Each structure stands twice: as structure tokens, then as C-alpha cells.
Amino acid sequence: MSESLVAKPAETESEGASVRMLSARDARRDRLALAEVLVDCVTGGASVSFMWPFTIDDANAWWGGVIETVTEDRTVLFGAYLDDALVGTVQLGLDVPPNQRHRGDVRKLLVHRDARGRGIGAALMTALETEAVRRGLSLLTLDTASGAAERLYERLGWTRAGVIPRYALWPGGRFCDTTIFWKALPSTS
User: Fold this and answer.
1) Distance CA 52, CA 179 (A)
2) pLDDT tens, position by position, for the chain (189 residues)?
3) What pairs with residue 187 in β-bridges?
4) Domain boundaries, the chain
5) What is the pTM of this model?
6) Burial degree of 95 (CB within 10 A; 0-12, 13-18, 19+)
7) DSSP 8-state class, residue 7
8) CATH of region 9-184
């Protein structure tokens, strides 16, 4: 879908941070900042698909693939900014099978460690959920290996579906359990 045809939701604010949906053009402009946030999270031990050592070049290359999916309208990308600096991001995955077009996947909720504790994760999730409702989705799913993220999702009304033991690895190579969450969204009709 053309970037100019995609409706933009209003910005969300949280303790001085603003959250907005990013076009592919925006993501290309902020690609280094997106890479820096990802590297910070992986360096801090987040189980978000990557292993140590993880470099800025690795992150930059990975974001290239994400930006392509934004261009193809298979991903909706959000960025959180403090004083015009990108400090967090989350993705709404829309590339689901034909019999699951009613749902989306939440991917890579990432907040730079220096910006945590300011409500940025909640603001990113609120923006994502608002856009999902606007698009007519009725269900969101996600997985996490973080206790802090689990508490955030529960505060935001998500339901824990269960825990899968030894589902993934921490960046250092140890196994970690993964918790699956879901959230039903209000109908717009």
C-alpha cells in the first residue's frame, strides 16, 4: 500500500514521550536509532531473537528487512521519542495466514534501558492497539520472556495463555521460558 494512502493515527504521549506510527520513509530516516535501541536491549539481555555478540551492523541489517515489510503493509511500525530522539519501538505484524486476517501479532516491544520507567512501553502498546482496532482487527497475540513485560501486559488487560518451557534462548545461550498472551479488541462496527 502506498505510504500516502495509509491513515495516520493521532500521536500518543507519555511523560514527555510521543509515540507515532512510522512510514517506511520515517524508518529509513531513523534506522540507526532503531538499531541502537535494539542493540541496547540485546546487550541488556533481552530475549528478542538475537544472540551475543550482536553488533550495530547486525541490528541495522535486521531493520532493513523490517522496513521492507512496512513498505509492503505487512508490518505497522511505531516509534517513541523523547526530545526528538527515538527511544522505543513496537511492531504490529499483519502477515498472517488467510484464515487469520482478524488478528495481528505484537512484535519487538523495545525500550532503551535509559528511557525505561516513564510509561513508554505502555504508550507504544496503546498506540498499537488503537491502530489494530482502526484496522478492524479483533485479536492480538504476543510472546515474552520478560517478567517486567508480563506485568505491563497484565496491567494493559492482556490475558496470559500459558508458558512454554525452554522455548527460546537468552542472548548468552541459556534456555528461557516464554509466556504467550492474547487480547480481544473492541469491535468498531
Assistant:
1) 22
2) 333 333 344 456 566 899 999 999 999 999 999 999 999 999 999 999 999 999 999 999 999 999 999 999 999 999 999 999 999 999 999 999 999 999 999 999 999 999 999 999 999 999 999 999 999 999 999 999 999 999 999 999 999 999 999 999 999 999 999 999 999 999 876
3) none
4) 9-184
5) 0.92
6) exposed
7) P
8) 3.40.630.30
User: Which residues make Cβ contacts (< 8 Å) with residue 86, sequence separation at least 6?
Assistant: 30, 33, 34, 37, 79, 80
From the list 26, 109, 115, the residue with the least C-alpha distance to 71 is 26
Give me 106's grid cell: 505484537
The per-residue DSSP string of 67-120 comes to HHHHHTTSEEEEEEEETTEEEEEEEEE----GGGTTEEEEEEEEE-GGGTTSSH
168, containing H or E segment: strand 159-169
Q: How far apart are CA 104 and CA 132, in angstroms?
A: 8
Reading the block at residue 74, the C-alpha cell is 505487512
